[in-house]
Amino acid sequence: MTDSHLLMVLVDALRHDQIDAGRTPFLWETARTGSLGATQEVLAGQLRPAFFAGLWPNESGVGHLFSYDPSSSPFRAARFVPPCVDRSPRAAWWVRRGLRAAASRIEARRGHRGSSAYCYLAEIPTSRLPLFAFSETELPWEDRTLPRPGLLRILSAQGIPWLHLGYPVIDQRTSFLTEAALSRMRGPHRMVFLHYAELDWVGHEHGPLGDRADSTLAAIDRSLEKVWRHAASLWPCARLLVFGDHGMVPVRGEVDVLRALRELPLRHGRDYAVFLDSTVARFWFLTPRARPLIVDLLAALPGGRWLTPADMDDLHLRGTRRENGEAFWLLDEGLVIMPSYFQREARPAGMHGYHPSVRDNWGAVVTADGSGPTHAVPLTEVFPLALGMLGLCPGTVLP
Ligand SMILES: [Zn+2]
């Protein structure tokens, strides 16, 4: 058991019900002779602490992609940008390009190698950028700010060679990953991690059902078969774990939270702050009068609901740093916030980030040796599963 080798593969947005003999013959056969279960996404945009370290947002301190943190925002220079810039697409493009480059340098100087690499402005209005900072700042194998080490740091501490081919340091397109895996995997590696992202991109743009998603998935399936054959030729005891970090829900409608908020006699940045993720509006209340006005307004707005204290407990959000949000308004299945800070104009055709009870939001988890779950489990369960497949167990692995 202790000399087992693991090929651990994240297929971003691989739905639990997307594996069948027609589209994905390799995964289908693997699941048929091994195991097939489902993963339930953690309600956070940044999911690496969940699957690499088994941590929930209130344990890792990492939540959604952006946190409310004006004092350490790497975008503070945006305070000097005149408001008219966002109304001119050409000017905004140049200004935001400069802001992004500056923020990446700032993050690098702070030793934040993860956020320096992925540094991303999304569609956050330029005037609001100085309020927000990155929630996850480290690379997946650094994870020094987590309360316990994740898989890659555990392997390093044990002197076990591993290879990471994924976000945010490598091209995650299928053709590139296939080449990278075939040329860079070596016999001494005990664990290789691959992250295929194209299915997520296609799912957002074209939806999870239809020809584009099918052909993207079929190409990933062919790549996986090649890489797995290569792994089996390198390693005498090769094990395979493939998982989706979430599913993809067809979008059926939208909710305009910004327009609703404009009805209130409150000013953004002075009375409250909001971050509009695609499926959740996160709020911070800066004056006492803001909370009741906003709570009442959104309680009456169709399409979503406030998370209650019981929800916060269920979702392991209670006790998350204040920077991740004081109150969360979560959308119903299949609706998206439009405009949001991720989509300003074109409504996506597919989305994830819904309540874990939404089945289309469930990812898949497949093992070749049958050691994986055969039902739905939280995404945090991927971590102990991977450790077990490597013959390691949590808590006894750091020297
Ligand atoms: Zn996505």
Task: Please give a structural write-up.
The protein has 399 residues and is α/β, with parallel strands linked by helices. The protein has 3 domains: 5-45 and 161-247 and 357-389, Alkaline Phosphatase, subunit A (3-Layer(aba) Sandwich); 70-134, no CATH class; 252-347, Gyrase A, domain 2. Helix content is 32%, strand content 18%. The protein is built from 13 helices and 17 strands. The strands form 5 sheets. Strands 5-6-1-7-16-2-17 form a 7-stranded mixed sheet, with helices on both faces. It has a 4-stranded antiparallel sheet with strand order 10-11-13-12, covered by helices on one side. A two-stranded antiparallel ribbon has the order 3-4. A hairpin with a 3-residue loop joins β10 (272-276) and β11 (280-285). α7 packs parallel to α9 (211-234). Residues 13, 200, 204, 352 line the site of zinc ion (ZN). Zinc ion (ZN) binds at residues 13, 200, 204, 352.
Compute the gyration radius: what is it? 21 Å
Order of helices and strands: EHEHHEHHEHEHEHHEEEHEEHEHEEEEEH
CATH class of the largest domain: Alpha Beta
Low-pLDDT parts are: none
Mean pLDDT metric: 93
CATH superfamily descriptor of the largest domain: Alkaline Phosphatase, subunit A
CATH topology of the largest domain: Alkaline Phosphatase, subunit A
Shape: globular
Task: Describe the protein's topology.
Elements: E1 5-11, H1 25-33, E2 35-40, H2 48-53, H3 57-60, E3 66-68, H4 89-109, H5 113-118, E4 132-134, H6 151-157, E5 162-165, H7 174-184, E6 191-196, H8 198-206, H9 211-234, E7 238-243, E8 249-250, E9 253-255, H10 257-262, E10 272-276, E11 280-285, H11 290-299, E12 304-306, H12 309-314, E13 327-331, E14 335-337, E15 350-351, E16 363-367, E17 376-378, H13 382-389
Helix pairs in contact: 7-9, 8-9
The protein binds zinc ion.
